[in-house]
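The protein record quoted in full:

***
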Amino acid sequence: MSLLTVKFLKQIDRLQIRSREIFRGKFKGERRSLNRGASVEFADYRLYELGDDLRYIDWNIYARLDRLFIKLFRAEEDLPIYILLDDSRSMDFGEPTKLECAKRIAAALSYIGLASFDRVAIHTLSNQANLIVPLTYGKTQFAKLSQAIEGIGAAQGTTDLTASLKRFVAHTKRPGVVLIISDFLDINGYEPGLKWLFARNFDVTVIHLLSDEEIDPRFSGELRLEDAETGQSKEMTINEQALVGYRVRFNAFCEGLKRFCLNRGVTCVRFNNRMPLEPFVLQELRRIGFIR
């Protein structure tokens, strides 16, 4: 079954992923180039948008029209976009599963990148980073890329985000936009791995995937709970007091990730597995400025 409908693809065909930085590209695209010289020629103007580089404002036009316009250039380049999708066992949870939701988000944002002439790569994260699709260029490659995403299944072993992100950084020659789609459930924490990305000047955005079943669990009694990744089990008595304590700790975990990102200027947005994809992409990701 296809991850995205034809109707939705038409809705997102003219969108573009925004970057807070300018990175060197490889092919001609729709981005301003870092390369300077005779090949960079003035082409047109467009209205200024919040976050645009003030150096490219045409102040002569502003003096005449009292409106801000940005200069555009012909020798523009594509943006490297790296989508890092958590395929650990904890993602194989919920109805639909968090992994299924992550694959649909990855497919939608991959299409946006390819349609706007950027290069898109897909990596999975569990106990190590695995390259699923290398940097790919052109909308004609979307069917192949979508098929590769659809084939991603839950990995074996335990989550190690730090080792995964270190491996990704070590094998990625060019910095660019990094989108991490994960539940961030790692017993060793997510902070060291994210700091590796920040230190290497990647433009990072985080999508924190949650499921209704873990936000508000609806079970009680004498139960044996098993860790999906380690296989370890524990017998517990689940009552209202235990559920209240769980919710407090779960909310603290979610807020901790959000605060960690906010303090470093990184956008962090949550996605619930029961949320429809279309308004999340068309409205929420626009609201936070990730796409336009």
Notes: The two ends are 28 Å apart (CA to CA).
